[in-house]
Fold Recombination protein RecR.
Amino acid sequence: MDEYHFNEPEPLINLIKALKRLPGIGIRSARRIAYHLMQYDLDGAGFLSKSLSDAVASLRHCVSCNGFSETELCFTCASDFRDKRLLCIVENPSDQNSVESSHGYKGLYYVLMGRVSPLDGVGPKELNFQKIFDRVHAGNVEEVIIATGFTAEGETTAQFLIDMFSSANIKTSRLARGVPAGSELEYIDAGTIAWALIDRKIIN
Ligand SMILES: [Zn+2]
């Protein structure tokens, strides 16, 4: 409890604790944000609080792509303008946004919402690979494009997916190596992703 001051009321400590859960936010930043909101920006604090509770209450996973959606089928999956023969598998919604920003892809997506990480106990079962497999079989998917990151865990995830699809004779490709090794997709510029899509390597 040393990181909290004796003169900090409990609601303030709880707010700091909540903010500290955010990625990249340590105790000092969490305290600075909490004090800032309470001292200078109560409107902003109210907006943050409402947006957060609304998001928690209304966001769900699209039944088709597993991405975030307000409705059963997300905007992308429901669109008539997407090429339903292509399915791009990404780790996170932010990676999907990166691929979209490249303007080089008009197919559909599947969002894993994570990646295979044996040390954290996350394997194909936890990521529900069976659902992806069923999704590919149910639709008229002609090619699966694996766009997991080029980190060690992203590569492991890709390999599991490649093995799964190649044993079922499904055409599978992987983003080209224009993307630097060790990279998370969300930090790569749109141009590089566009080229990596065009140069994608057919594996199976
Ligand atoms: Zn969807």
